[in-house]
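A further point concerns the way the authors explain their paired sequence and structure data. Each protein is reduced to its one-letter sequence and a matching series of backbone shape codes. An entry of this sort, consisting of the sequence and the corresponding backbone structure tokens, reads as follows:
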Amino acid sequence: MSGREIPGHTVVAYCLAVIGAATAVIHFAVAGAHFQEYWLYGVFMLVVAWLQLLWAIPAVARPSRLLWYGGTILNAGVVAVYIVTRTAGDVIGPGAGSAEPAGFGDVLCTVLEAIVIAGCIWLLAARTDHLVGRRHLVLAPLAAGAVMATLLSAALVAGGPDMVMSASASTGTRAGTGAGMGGMSAIKLATATPAGYITMPDTNMQMSAGMRMASSTPCVATPTAAQQHAAVSLVDTSWQDAKKYQSLAAAKAAGYVPITPAGLPVVHYLNKAAYRATVLGGPVLDLTEPQSLVYANTPGGAVLAAAMYITSPGGSTPQPGGCLTQWHVHTNLCLSRSLGVTGVVRPGSSAASCPAGSRNRVTPPMMHIWFVPIPGGPTAIDASNQQVVHAAEQVAGPGNGTA
């Protein structure tokens, strides 16, 4: 071997180290969001990230067969966990039993881990080594690094269920607030509903414990003129089509049944046939027959407070109004097989605390269109029961009984 040649295995090891470091970056990036969902999810992401990073360093400094065995086992275990969570669902925590959706970032990470596995196996199985020019020790890892940087940048921009840098809590990055948001806070769109003006949803104000956005990527883009028009059309048309359900009797006759306990301040009704049609591929935003209706019990009787659109697990979440129309999920509900809500998992409680016949799982994504003047307007992400009832009391009801 001349001074201008080096073993080809060394070049492969350098490239695998670059790819392994990229997978560590992805896991570091999503750890914060996973901590918000469940502490053990966050710990898992951090442990995996550090192991992948600590593996990548000796892959360059002191490569060995033991290191290739370790890289194979480590990444194969992570890939196995990914496959299980995207098929059978999480084993523990609020997502137990519910399959997680796949996004660009997490799929990318899994593909890179598979490449590391294949590379380690090749290094273990190769019986001979070929000499290559020393320049390859620079050019090949540099090319791998450029590809990794490009893919990581695309993943951070594209987002997805498991690829997002934690959003800042500062006012400069809040949806609908701050000068850095291109004037989104100035959005105020008139509607023909009792709910009033559409404004930019503020997740910091409207997200309560046990809730999170359906997308882990914060929606911060300023809605275009077309999206603003579409948001107004969505709200107005939803109201016109749902007016008939101001009568609770009419809603029941159409197949809506309560899925939260009757008599509570706010009661959710579900049309199982409408939701079944969505699961089977029907439109998510069927304005003539929303999957769910929300009623608020006031001293004057039940008042129709909102239509709620629900997609199928892992299904599409259309946003005709861009960031004016955002989807959320609940992570702390006990759900029965018939989609009834039987209880809430309190902070610090085990998912096993759900009543018999139900279990804690992440709900499918949902979006409200409000018909009463709650804080945030018709497309607000959510509101407390107290806010919903107070808003409903300002709207004349048709004399319903208690929902």
